[in-house]
Amino acid sequence: MPLAEPTQPAVAAPMAAGPGRTKTFGLRATRAAIPAVSGSLYAARTKIHPEAVRGTFRTIKWVLLAVTLGIYYLVPFLRWDRGPGAPSQAVLLDLDRGRFYAFAIELWPQDVTYVMGLLILAAFVLFLMNAVAGRVWCGYVCPQTVWTDLFMAVERLIEGDRRARLKRDAAPWTAEKLARRGAKHAVWLVIAWWTGGAWVLYFADAPTLVGQLATFRAPPVAYAAILILTATTYTLAGHMREQVCTYMCPWPRIQGSLTDAHSLNILYRRDRGEPRTAVKKAAALRAAGQPAGDCVDCFACVTACPAGIDIRDGLQLDCIQCGLCADACDTVMTRLGRPTGLIGYDTEANCRSRAEGRGPVSRMLRPRTILYGLLVAGVGGFMLTSLATRSLTGLSVLHDRNPQFVPLSDGSIRNGFTLRIVNKRPVARRFALAVEGLPEARVEVVGGTPEALAVPADATQEFRVLVFAPRAARLAPTTPLSFRITDPASDETAGTRDHFKAP
């Protein structure tokens, strides 16, 4: 059986059969026979054809693939009633109005702190996942992994499994080969196109935009975004695949500092698998009282790996912890009547403990997991509390810069301010303005009255406010002022501070 060489020019440790052993399958050598690379920092990429497997981890990946793709493609079409005049799309990033809608949540540009908090929360969740189970995010729900799995499923459906694809790669071009390759790339392009199309639906009303796209009446920026995302999806998921995870993504290098000996990772149980040998030879060795491991050197784990690595060489940068090698190994062990779990999620501490003849070691609760858990709970709780108690009214004030004050003929001093009131409710409201901190001050609103500042629904409104200090007032060069607005209908208030300037 031909073996796809890994893309990373790593040199494996010698196999159990002793130094100098060269085990080949067809015309290609295994990792143990790959010589050291010299004179070049990079190895030429060999196309990897993973073999289809069945098992627990593959089932989990199929379920998560269906769930995540379903969320991505279908969420723009979900509806949410926000009242008259408001968009009815459940999740919408409305760039024209500067709003982000997520079901009952509406965020304004002033609420950018919630977006920052969400990013921080996502980072801490990723740290916690890594501390508990390594690159489990990469192996199951990373967008690159999800779309690559989908593209590989299409490839298997059209061109066959690993052996058929390897045979077709080596064969000359025929009408059948051209037809299958053309059909595969056509389906890939359709998936990539719809991926880009689904993305732009988050920025406008989905049903309306679909109709505009179909009749070529959509804005040019929508077509440009779809074209860019189509090209990137087709390239990354169809052609680059494991190269993205190994070379482009920074996470493999970051996760090393977040993983310790008690983190779960896909590992090979060397204490049980070594020394490797064929099935019949293993039986003979055991009959003679000599050691023989459960690993039969079938390379099923290697051919199932989407990164083309040999997990028996230990934890590697390329490994995304998807568990497909464990499913492949379990299938072989089941056929041979041996216990499963030769490859599976384990910890380095457990491996060392077994090698020393001691029992299993499990420390899921340790300082780093407790710290990450507390950070996730703290940031998440703060954001939920802040969202639940946030005010739907906002007030900001800007003092005139030039001039900062104006002496009037009657001896009084005037300061000018620009007030901006934010009304985040879907109904128009009237606010009453009060200015405190300057005794006997008189307040005027240009074009209105302080008792009735009208603000439209879901909008901001600016007001020109003049504050007069009487002649008899004893004024310091700077006097603190407090501005407060009140909605009489709901008793909701908002306030801010500034200063009154005088000679």
Automatic annotation (TrEMBL):
It comes from the Bacteria. Signal peptide: none annotated. Residues 484-503 are annotated as: Disordered. Keywords: 4Fe-4S, Electron transport, Iron, Iron-sulfur, Membrane, Metal-binding, Transmembrane, Transmembrane helix, Transport. The keyword Transmembrane helix applies. The chain crosses the membrane at residues 62-80, 112-133, 186-204, 216-237, 370-388. InterPro entries: 4Fe4S_Fe-S-bd (IPR017896), 4Fe4S_Fe_S_CS (IPR017900), Cyt_c_oxidase_cbb3_FixG (IPR014116), Electron_Trans/Redox (IPR051684), FixG_C (IPR032879), Ig-like_fold (IPR013783). The keyword Iron-sulfur applies. Residues 285-314 form the 4Fe-4S ferredoxin-type domain. Residues 494-503 have a biased composition (Basic and acidic residues). It holds the Pfam family Fer4_18. SUPFAM superfamilies: 4Fe-4S ferredoxins. PANTHER family: FERREDOXIN-TYPE PROTEIN NAPH. This is 4Fe-4S ferredoxin-type domain-containing protein. It comes from Methylobacterium isbiliense. The lineage of its organism: Bacteria, Pseudomonadati, Pseudomonadota, Alphaproteobacteria, Hyphomicrobiales.
